[in-house]
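Sequence only, no structure available. Ideas?
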Amino acid sequence: MSIDKKFVDQLVKVTSKAALASSYFVGKKDKIAADKAAVDSMRFNLNNINMKGEIVIGEGELDEAPMLYIGEKLGTNHGPQFDIAVDPLEGTNFAANNLPGALSVIAIAEKNKLFKAPETYMEKISTKVNEKNVVDLDYSVKKNIFNLSEYLNKKPENLTACVMNRPRHNEIIKNLKELKVKIKLITDGDVSGALLVTDDKYSVDIFLGIGGGPEGVLAASALDTCNCSFQGRFLFSSDEDKNRAKKMGINDLTKKYELNEIVTGDSIFCATGITSGDLVEGIKIQDNDFISETMVTHKSSGLKKVIKLKQNLS
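Reply:
I predicted one. C-alpha cells follow.
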C-alpha cells in the first residue's frame, strides 16, 4: 500500500503555515512563544485533513497538552490511518535569535510503519552512499573516512563531514582534523544536518555524531526516499529512559537500527524554512501573501524536491 500523493500538497500547507506562524516570533528572543505558535498552527491544520492520524513522535509524553504529544489523535477521523512524526519548530534557538536554519518539520507513514523513538539521545550516521559495509556506526571515524574516500574516489581532504558543535563530539572532530577532512560545524538542528548528504549541492559527504532520537527518525524518512544511508543507536542516560523505551517496545537497548527498520513502508516528509538555511529559504511576506520553501519527499512516487509556494496570509 502507498500513501496517496494528494497528501503531499496538504502536508506542505501544514508545515508552511506552521512556519509562517512561528516566523512572527523570529528574533524576539522567545523560543517558547515561537514553538507554541508552530504547534498550534500545525495541530489546527492537521485536524482538517481527512485521515486517522496518531502522533508517534511529538513534543511531549502522553497527554502533555498543549504540545503535540505522543498518542494524540489528529485528523477528521475519516480516511487512511497514519503514524505522524512532528517537530513543529526544529531549531528553537535559531528562530528566537534570528539565525539561519529554523524549520517546521513533519513526516507521515502508514500505520505501524514508523519507528516510535523515545525522547533520548541517538548515535547516528548518514551518508549519500547506500552500499553496505562502506560506512557503519561500529567503525572508527578513520575507517569510515577511508572507506568513504575510496568509494567516492575522493581524497579524505576533499570530503566534508557535518558534525554538531558539542563537547561530546570533541574526539570525532579531533579525528576528522587529523585526517584533514573538511568540517562543517552546526550549532543546532540535527534533522537538517543529517539531510545535507541528500544532494551534491550541499557539499556534505557524511553526517555523524550524537543528537536527538526523534530527530533521527524524522531525518530517516527523507533519507529513505533519497537513496541515502542512515544508522542509529539509542543512548540511555537513566533507568527512567530505559523503562520508557521498553514501554515503547524497544527490548534490545544496544541495537543498531538500519534505515529500513526505522521506516518500513511509504512515507511523506516535509520541512519548511522559517529562517533561511542550507536546505531551504525562510518565510518571506509580500503585501497580503507569504512565500515559503519546503523540502518534500514521497517514497512511493520518488518525489524529492523543494516546493516554493505563494499563499494568501488570510
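Residues 6-114+266-312 form a domain with the Fructose-1,6-Bisphosphatase; Chain A, domain 1 fold (CATH 3.30.540.10).
Hope that gets you unstuck.
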